[in-house]
């Protein structure tokens, strides 16, 4: 063990975060050696609450540019490493212990530490949707944030993939803000980068402007310069839109198109399987669900992952398919595999009771 703790500046940008900022800072205040808060125009009690944790509170006039605000916050940090969080992020207790261990033992050659980002949870608080973000960076490297909206931290050097997770416990925000910023940039004649095209399409999708979203997702894909994870995600969004528009052929085509960018992902195999299941094509559905169940879950993938598709869901659906075909022993087998992942899932427990009855098994 190195047992030579690094020092950390937490650098955050906030605005009207009175509902969540205390929860966030409570979870990180004994990890950070310095807390820097940059306020971009709060009109609630955010600053008052933050003052309980730090006196390093700064104002930044909002200019519709998240990267500019984050770069300003980073410029104020004085410790060896800079950490960023959003106000509705929280470090759960098990990850706080991991973070303390990382702080004590981080190899001094590491420039960047990325961490899991848990974006959604089921009723039992199991993560259902995750990705990775660069979280902790060496201050002396002067890494910069890029992008007015959906900003990202441009890094290089010695990068560590950690098993620490940051949980995103979202509250309501201004849902129109990002769309307004993009539309303003378009009106000013700005040429969008591939990344801008992708995230603008996401905003259009979220605001149910489906035809326009299709236009920009396709513009993004046609650049052939997008990040592979964004390409795959765009295919999924296009499949969603065409399904909503009643165009099943194009919906299915974009699920298959995702395979142009990488080996099949469990999320897409499950979606194709579901389409076959709904059409009563059980053998085809079995093929795709079996493929999903046999794929090796990527450990260091940066793209978004639906945890269900990589764990219990293919087996739950195989149970359904085999039951429909009268193959009850196989149905029971796959339901039990699903139960290993989700022992308290009501649907899985219902299947167990039903199949034990059919097979004459004791519960």
Overall description:
With 363 residues, the protein is of the alpha/beta class. Helices cover 46% and strands 17% of the residues. Strands 1, 2, 3, 4, 5, 6, 7, 10 and 11 form a 9-stranded mixed sheet that branches. It has a two-stranded antiparallel sheet with strand order 8-9. It is globular. The termini are far apart.
Which key features would you list for this structure?
two-stranded antiparallel sheet; 14 helices; Serine Threonine Protein Phosphatase 5, Tetratricopeptide repeat; 9-stranded mixed β-sheet; 363 residues; Spore Coat Polysaccharide Biosynthesis Protein SpsA, Chain A; alpha/beta; single chain; 46% helix; 3 domains
Short description:
This is Glycosyltransferase 2-like domain-containing protein. This protein folds into three domains: 8-168, Spore Coat Polysaccharide Biosynthesis Protein SpsA, Chain A; 174-262, Serine Threonine Protein Phosphatase 5, Tetratricopeptide repeat; 276-363, Serine Threonine Protein Phosphatase 5, Tetratricopeptide repeat. Helices cover 46% and strands 17% of the residues.
């Amino acid at each position: 063990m190195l047992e030579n703790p690094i020092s950390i500046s937490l650098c955050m940008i906030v605005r009207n975060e009175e509902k969540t900022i205390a929860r966030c800072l409570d979870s990180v205040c004994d990890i950070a050696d310095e807390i820097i808060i940059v306020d971009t125009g709060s009109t609630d009690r955010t600053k008052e609450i933050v003052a309980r944790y730090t006196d390093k509170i700064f104002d930044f006039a909002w200019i519709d540019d998240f990267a500019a605000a984050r770069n300003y916050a980073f410029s104020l940090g004085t410790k060896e490493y800079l950490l960023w969080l959003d106000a509705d992020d929280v470090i759960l207790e098990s990850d706080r212990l991991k973070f303390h261990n990382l702080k004590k033992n981080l190899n001094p050659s590491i420039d960047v530490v990325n961490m899991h980002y848990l974006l959604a949870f089921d009723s039992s608080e199991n993560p259902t949707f995750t990705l990775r973000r660069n979280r902790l960076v060496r201050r002396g490297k002067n890494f910069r944030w890029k992008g007015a909206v959906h900003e990202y931290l441009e890094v290089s050097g010695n990068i560590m993939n950690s098993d620490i997770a940051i949980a995103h416990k979202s509250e309501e925000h201004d849902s129109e803000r990002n769309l307004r910023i993009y539309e303003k940039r378009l009106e000013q004649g700005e040429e969008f980068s591939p990344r801008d095209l992708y995230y603008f399409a996401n905003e259009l999708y979220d605001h149910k402007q489906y035809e326009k979203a299709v236009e920009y997702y396709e513009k993004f894909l046609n650049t052939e310069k997008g990040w592979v994870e964004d390409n795959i995600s765009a295919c999924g969004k296009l499949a969603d839109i065409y399904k909503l528009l009643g165009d099943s052929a194009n919906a299915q085509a974009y699920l298959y198109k995702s395979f142009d960018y990488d080996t099949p992902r469990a999320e897409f195999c499950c979606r194709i399987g579901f389409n076959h299941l709904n059409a009563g094509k059980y053998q085809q559905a079995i093929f795709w669900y079996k493929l999903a169940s046999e794929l090796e879950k990527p450990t260091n993938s940066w793209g978004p992952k639906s945890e269900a598709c990589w764990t219990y869901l293919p087996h739950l659906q195989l149970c359904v398919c085999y039951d429909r075909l009268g193959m009850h022993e196989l149905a029971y087998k796959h339901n039990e595999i699903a139960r290993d992942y989700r022992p308290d899932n009501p649907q899985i427990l219902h299947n167990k009771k039903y199949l034990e009855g059919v097979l004459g098994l004791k519960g």
